[in-house]
């Protein structure tokens, strides 16, 4: 029981015991009961309200239905059509609107995400590209103008589905609008038939100036559909400042509720004596003390009229009431005259107050009474004006955007008048409303407290004439918790630090209205989007009747805050809570439309939230239908002029025949069996045939003739191993031909030879042995012919053709399975060239398809069992040779015989000069020459101790030849001497040395054999010298096998050859000089024993030969780059690359295959699907690494062939720079004197050009020039030799088309003429830009890409794999800090385990932007991404970016056309684009004015 009132709690007897407790009703339970009761009442109220709303809605629908016309009969045809169209648009909108919105939003989100990501500040991969550095304004305008005038700038519709196109256009409209582009511009784009965002953005960039396009710097360009951004919010004016700030800041107060307004309707007439202008100055000295108070009132009245503010003086009575005074009238303009009067009045008032006879208390009370009367009179005037306005419009409320000072509250009064922030005056209620107003200070409005209170001195205060037109009662349930007001405050404060929400009562009638201010400090976080402006004034200046609330946002003039004001208009609520909660729900929806805050509201306000959503949707649908109507109209117009796509732009690879166009043989003439036999009988009856047959029968192979023919007939593959001189290369093809002709069988036999000279010489020999004249070769009178690159002699009657291996490979590329060939003989397969191994690989597959094809493999030294196992256990025939014994000697024997003494000068000249560019020094293994040789003279021992086996000593060879020619024991061997040398450069040097030696001036012929020497000159080496004359033949390994010089009796073998090797370390192929194998040495030695006992000198020590020479050569497939081979596989369509190569005789490692594929993908020789491109077809024709091959192809287009061919030759040979021991610094200084174009390659080219001028200039010693500049004349000559071969390859492939006179000049440089180096000058049409360093550097970068490094802090980074590295210490760019990009050719790991880039060349930004990689332009993001973000440029200019994109596309298009048809002329239009590109690339940076 509850304790009695007033009773005290009894103290427990035992203090240790706890006090007694009494059971009391739980306050929580009581509260719960009350709340439950209130809840039930609220639900009942809610049900009643819902029922009333349902009845109202049903009545509305019935009224609407009754007002509808009966089946449209009462509608005019135009109205009926409009209604049908509206219904159709609504249906289309409902069906597709959500989808279009989602897709457009997805595109916008993607574009905005790309812009944020790609232009992120601080991103190391983001590089700013300043277009003005490379293109001036004229360049940009010229590019854009040419593009606009071209056909490619025109857009055509490629679909006939009008509905689908309308959807695309609809989506495009919203996408571009959300991206920040202007609506008129968007509509113009759509009317042009553009339906994709990228094309639309490009057209907008081309068509409009930069200032009418969105800025790249604005990270949120998308204007919100239902809001505004911070940048769009206006700034308010500063508050009015006058001399009397306290008076101007005073706010009006309300009138007592019982004050009769009618008594104050009449405005007071100003008393003349109070007129400021009529008052005369009063002499205070003569003033009567009884008049002091009256004079005080006159001064105060006069001051109030000047300032426009009536304020009561503080008195004891007023202090108690807290009434310090209010502003009740308009501010009067404070002119200069009035300011002076005000100053005088203030001084007089102060003087009055100091008078001891002045009654200050009485004066204050009287003045306060006057202030109150004046205040009541002003309020009555305001009410009168409000009523007059209300009678003119029924329930209309007006809003104003004019600004006046915010009113303040009079705490002493029960009623109030509020001068709103926008100038309207609301006459309000009393009691609780007054306390609500009192809680809102003049600063609660945030920006509106100072922004919308501008009070122009010459403007009357605007009195609101609005009235409430609609009262909505949400029921008692709407006032229950949770309240929308509380949710709003929590949401705003919780999401925005420092933000606040202020509510004000602005009621002017018996019902309630509210306004809410949401203020955000600019120092805190702000909303991304502010609510859209909803003004109370329509476009014609009248009050809007179609809104229930207004929304206005302004920044404060002092830049400290931003405020949004929400105000109820045209609607009111019966209670203050409902008004507050109603507007709070509106604010919640406006500020957080996407969030589910409505779930926290009670059911009433959740329902109203749905109403707001429905209203927004209705308004959006109305706008969308207007847009759809326009879209449909535009689509109809576009479809009427649209044409179906044509096939003009389609290209096929069928026209890209490449080498397939070349005919390597003529189709065989059809002959009957009898005709074939008759032809054969005619041959065998020829006396010459019988004469030659006698010699043929003496060859060792004749004894195996029948066995061989039978084996070939019974087996698809036959292997023949014949020693040198057995006659296999000439006789076996002739046996097959004769056997077929005798049987009357049609046949065509192809014999592959590794070298051109072998094919020609063997064809001539077989032609003669068949009883034909040598001049008949390749004519209708002969059955024999030959086919080599760019030369062939054959007709439709030719049955036996000797061809190079490359010709047969080209035939396989045609894809006809060699259908006209019956027998294919592969000669010299022991050489294991990459072409012969590939041919075996192809034939192994071809034999399955062509069971009638007979294949014969022939070689002098071959691992027969290995070949037999590879070709399904093919039978093997061993045929002995017909050779004489050959006496073999070595280097020490040659020194002993010749008495050669190695002088100091000779030792220096022949010592290898090793530098870090040369890797070959470590490739050759074995001991140095022995210092002690038993049985040899002391001089020989001394010479051998200093002799360098790796170099060729020409003095030794000349002395050895002289000794053989004069020593009685060796004179019988001197009739014909064959000298094996590694290359043409060595042949030239020895040729010059022999012609300059007196011993060889008379009675000696010196001939040379090399693939580059004219055929007529090479034939002289096979002829017997005149009686009494002797000959010396200088040859490379061309004379090792395949051809036979019959009278050779002595061989001098340098034991060296030049071969291409793929450097795994450098990842490039190089032509290097290396030692031969024992099998090669055996072949060379065998050349001396054909006619008699022979003599052979191997110019290496016997120890090296026996212990360090390999038995066989390494197959080229294992030591060369596989790039060319892979291209062949794709051309021949053999299937998968890895699968095909795995079936080779000696398959390469998967690592090398993968590297080769990656290289081909990088240079675009293969597509990502590993299909061959047109560029790949041309690269397959060049004997170079694909990067160098691409460099040469591009140089033919960019007009810098000479310098690029020289660079390719330099990189494919040993470096021309030498660094003698102890002279590294001097050599480096000499090299830097040739520095050119911030490029190691151009620096070397510059030195090469200096050497060439020295060679061509009479009186200049080549060797002195090289020694002075630390250059190797030997390596420079090898570079020139390689360069000439590359020119020939370019001419042969049609990449560089030469006139007949130019071809003669190339042949003159190509072929040996008296041992003197001759140079070929490239025609100007291919070499117009070789002197332009910028164009050359651009070509190098484009050819080597992606071998590019970029500056990364103090070091460099490889863009291909992000590997950190340095520039090589020997590079001219080592300390060049002006460069951000460099191309390189190879990377080495230095001794300190760091990686260094070699052969670097400067690369400009514009080169990467125009020529390198595959670029993706993100127009909206203003970014260019090259090869999956290897390089990323961001632009600040829309038009500059598009100009770069257009020019890049044009260059790529021109290049692609070039690769598709290498011999076609450039069209005038393409030439104009090409000239612009070359001008920009060749100019470098634009000079700043």
Put the structure in a nutshell.
The protein has 1489 residues and is of the alpha/beta class.
Give a quick set of tags describing it.
1489 residues, 7 domains, eight-stranded mixed beta sheet, seven-stranded mixed beta sheet, 47 helices, 43% helix, elongated, helicase, EC 3.6.4.13, chloroplast, RNA helicase activity, RNA-binding
Structure write-up:
The protein has 1489 residues and is an alpha/beta fold. The protein has seven domains: 81-126 and 134-221, no CATH class; 227-242 and 400-592, no CATH class; 259-267 and 286-392, no CATH class; 660-879, Rossmann fold, CATH 3.40.50; 886-1114, P-loop containing nucleotide triphosphate hydrolases (Rossmann fold), CATH 3.40.50; 1201-1329, no CATH class; 1346-1399, no CATH class. Helix content is 43%, strand content 11%. The protein has 47 helices and 36 strands. It has an eight-stranded mixed sheet with strand order 14-13-15-12-16-17-11-18, with helices on both faces. β16 (823-826), α22 and β17 (854-859) form a beta-alpha-beta unit. α4 (162-178) crosses α15, α19 (728-743) crosses α20 and α44 (1333-1344) packs across α47 (1468-1483). The chain is elongated. The two termini are 101 Å apart. Mean pLDDT is 77; it is low at 1-27, 64-73, 240-286, 315-331, 390-444, 450-466, 645-664 and 911-931.
